[in-house]
Amino acid sequence: MRYQDGYKDQKRRELLKAAGAAAKKKGFAATGVDALAEAAGVTSGAVYAHFGSKAGLLDAVIVNEMERSRARWSRNPERSVETWAAEEVARYLSRAHIDHPESGCLMPALAADVARAAAPTRQVFEDQLKQAQREIAERLGEKDKAWQFLSQIVGAMVLARAVVSDDVQDEILAASRDAVTG
Amino acid sequence: MRYQDGYKDQKRRELLKAAGAAAKKKGFAATGVDALAEAAGVTSGAVYAHFGSKAGLLDAVIVNEMERSRARWSRNPERSVETWAAEEVARYLSRAHIDHPESGCLMPALAADVARAAAPTRQVFEDQLKQAQREIAERLGEKDKAWQFLSQIVGAMVLARAVVSDDVQDEILAASRDAVTG
DNA sequence: GTCTATATATTGATAGAC
DNA sequence: GTCTATCAATATATAGAC
C-alpha cells in the first residue's frame, strides 16, 4: 500500500511537470488533454484517473508551478535586499526566460488562461499568488512594493514574448530591470 | 465601386470590432472562427472572405484594437504630465477594466495569444506596441519610463483578472496606480 | 460578399479490458 | 492506474449557390 501510494504520487508529479511545461509553451486552453498527457508519455485516461477533468489538471498545475517558483526565490540566500532582488530579477527578466516559457514562470504564460477559468481555479491561483506576494514583501519591506514588483516583471515578460525582434525584447527587459532594482 | 468599397470596409470594421471583443473575452485561440463570426452576426465564410485565415483575422484585430487604444490615450488633453498619467491610469487600472475585457485593452487579454502566434503576427503587434510606447514616451519624457509604465499596468491587469476576490484585485490595482503616478 | 454544406481533424470525456 | 476504442461536439478551412 505504501509502495503503491508512492508510485502513484511519483507518476502524478511526472505528469504535472510535463503537462505544466506543455501548457506554458502552447497555452492551456489551446492544448488538448491528449497532448498534455502525451508530454508525460501517457494517454488521456491517466489524466482523468489522476485529476478528474481538464480543469482539475489546471488547478494542480498552478499549485505545482507556483510552489516550484517560490522554492527558487527562496533558494537564493539574501545577503542584502538589493543583491537578492538584482539576482532574481536578472534571472527572471532574461532572454532565456523569454525563449523558454516551458521551464519558466507560470504567470506570464498562463495568467490569461487562469483569468478565463472558473472561480475555483482562480481561487487556487489567488492563494498561490498571495503566498508569493507575502514572501516577496518580507524581503522588500512593504506590501505594496511586492505587488508592484510582481506586476512589473510579469507585465514585462508578457510584452517581451509578444514582440518579434530581439532589440525590442531587450529594451523592454532592460527598462523593467531598472524599474525594480535601480 | 466607391459605394461598394465603403460598404465592404464598414462590414469589415463591424466584424473586426465584434471579433476583437469576443477574442478578448474568451481568448483568441480558444474561440472558434464560427463564434468569432457569429459575434458580428455573420458566418465563418465572411471571415475567410475578408481575412483569408484565422491568423489573418488576428493580425487585423491587433491593428484595430491597438489603434483604438492609442486614440483613447490621445483624446485626453494633457494639461500636465501628472494629471494625464493619473487620469489614464485611473481608467486603465479600474474595476470596470477588470470586469469587462471585451471592451478593454488588447494587451492584458491577448498578449499571451500573440506570444504563441507566428512571427508575422508578432511583428504586427511589435509595430503597434512601439507606436504606443513612443507616444507615451513623448509625454513621460524618457523612453525607459514608457516601457516601465506599460509593463506595470499590463502586468497588474493580467494578475488582477486571474484572482477571484475583489479585495486582492483592489490591492493589486491600488499598488500599481501608486507605482506609476505617486 | 455571404451563405449553406461539407471535409477532415481534434476537442473533452467516458466505458470496458487488463 | 493505464490502456484502447469510442462518443458527440467543435475545430479550421474549402466549394458551390446566390
From TrEMBL, chains A, B:
Record keyword Transcription regulation present: yes
Domain of life: Bacteria
Domain HTH tetR-type: 9-69
PROSITE patterns the record matches: HTH_TETR_2
SUPFAM superfamilies: Homeodomain-like, Tetracyclin repressor-like, C-terminal domain
DNA-binding region, residue range(s): 32-51
InterPro entries: Homeodomain-like_sf, HTH_TetR, Tet_transcr_reg_TetR-rel_C_sf
Keyword Transcription appears in the UniProt entry: yes
UniProt xrefs under Pfam families: TetR_N (PF00440)
Keywords, in A-Z order: DNA-binding, Transcription, Transcription regulation
Protein name: AcrR family transcriptional regulator
Organism taxonomic ancestry: Bacteria, Pseudomonadati, Pseudomonadota, Alphaproteobacteria, Hyphomicrobiales
